[in-house]
Design a protein that fits this description.
Elements: E1 3-9, H1 17-27, E2 31-42, E3 47-52, H2 55-67, E4 71-76, H3 82-94, E5 100-102, H4 117-127, E6 133-134, H5 138-145, H6 153-165, E7 171-173, E8 182-188, E9 194-200, H7 209-222, H8 227-245
Parallel strand pairs: 1-2, 1-4, 4-5, 5-6
Antiparallel strand pairs: 2-3, 7-8, 8-9
Helix pairs in contact: 1-7, 2-3, 3-4, 5-6, 7-8
Length: about 250
């Protein structure tokens, strides 16, 4: 069975991180393989503590997962430090044929930092060019670029293009933090082509929706869908999850 390797942190509350990734893959009938980058203590409202897994241990996890030859795609979430970013980049260098989805987890839902400043620089400098798709929400895109958060679709598209210029192959700008009756995700491809994926904006409050979206995209890429179709299917999956919490 084809598997998806999910790389990220634990979440003791069960809402996000690897717990959400594994739940998502279970829903989609895809085998999960895991590489833990950090152990966090979180509630729905606070990040209480975080401990980073040493880079040699992470490298061993990645090697063990990738040696089996079953991995059809990779999803990357919380990275915590520059050393972690470099360890993941080295693993991707040796397995460059796999589709990779990078969810730039910079902060917890409660605002606690999950990637330090050196890690953000390393993400942009050594990791971004190695991934198939970057999936930032509006605050994450602004943080990565050091600019003000996009106020409308035109500014969101401009920031996506700036991330392409920094090395991203494709960017899915998530619209969950925007306003309006529809939540619109914008996929900007390597040549600037744009696809929009819209769903009703629901009043649901569910942690881990970004984790679920990126993991579902990776699952569909592993299953053979092309990028736009994978994003559309993942959007439908997350919308269904949100309806359950509505």
């Amino acid at each position: 069975m084809t598997a998806v390797l999910v790389i990220g942190g634990s979440d003791s509350s069960g809402g996000a991180g690897l717990v959400r990734d594994v739940r998502t893959l279970g829903d989609l009938k895809v085998q999960p393989l895991c590489a833990l980058t950090a152990v966090t203590a979180q509630t729905d409202s606070a990040l209480l503590a975080s401990h980073t897994v040493p880079a040699p241990v992470l490298r061993a996890q990645l090697e063990a997962a990738l040696l089996g030859g079953r991995v059809g795609a990779i999803k990357i979430g919380m990275l915590a430090t520059a050393a972690t970013v470099h360890a993941v980049a080295e693993a991707l260098q040796a397995h460059g044929e796999l589709p990779v989805v990078l969810d730039p987890v910079l902060r917890s839902s409660s605002g606690g930092a999950l990637l330090d400043a050196a890690g953000r620089r390393a993400l942009l400098e050594v990791l971004l060019r190695k991934v198939t798709l970057l999936t930032p929400n509006i605050p994450e895109a602004a943080d990565l670029l050091g600019v003000t958060a996009a106020r409308d679709e035109a500014e969101a598209l401009e920031q996506a293009r700036l991330l392409l210029a920094r090395g991203a192959r494709a960017v899915l700008m998530k619209g969950g933090h925007a306003r309006g009756p529809a939540s619109v995700d914008l996929l900007v491809g390597p040549h600037g082509e744009v696809r929009a994926f819209a769903a009703p904006r629901l009043p649901a409050d569910m942690r881990g929706s970004g984790c679920a979206l990126a993991t579902a995209i990776a699952a569909h890429l592993a299953g053979g869908l092309e990028l736009a179709a994978a994003c559309a299917a993942a959007k439908d999956y997350v919308t269904a999850l949100l309806r359950q919490h509505d």
